[in-house]
Amino acid sequence: MNKEKFEKGLEIRRSVLGADYVDNSINNATDFNMPMQELVTEYCWGEVWARPGLPKKTRSMINLAMITALNRPHELKLHVRGAINNGVTKEEIQEVLLQTAIYCGVPAAIDSFRTAKEVLDEIDKE
């Protein structure tokens, strides 16, 4: 493991997903899944998210589309919150999900709209 990339990844991951969520994921990792936590933190967040080529807001919007295509509602919830943290507006989330209806299929987009609404409603109550 590259300690420098892991630490940079941890910083970015916390800023996007929230320190509580990330710290909970790391602190509750077991011998079995800690290698995955390390891989995700170092490679996804410390290597790719740390690149200067795209702002975090754009990366979040791309993630929403890809996670919709993959039909991963748990990850979508997490990344809707992250997108808001990165400055993506509700209207932009709506547009991303409408775009996915065309390229990923209406059923995938409908599920993502439903999932995103749950998160946005939670955020509104905070």
From TrEMBL:
UniProt keyword list:
Lyase
Q: What InterPro entries does its record include? A: 4CMD/NDH-1_regulator (IPR052512), AhpD-like (IPR029032), CMD-like (IPR003779), Decarb_PcaC (IPR012788)
**Top-level taxonomic group:** Bacteria
Q: Does the keyword Nucleus apply?
A: no
User: GO molecular function, one example?
Assistant: 4-carboxymuconolactone decarboxylase activity
**Which Enzyme Commission numbers does its entry carry?**
4.1.1.44
Keyword check for Lyase: yes
Name all Carboxymuconolactone decarboxylase-like domain ranges: 36-118
Name of this protein: 4-carboxymuconolactone decarboxylase
Originating gene: pcaC
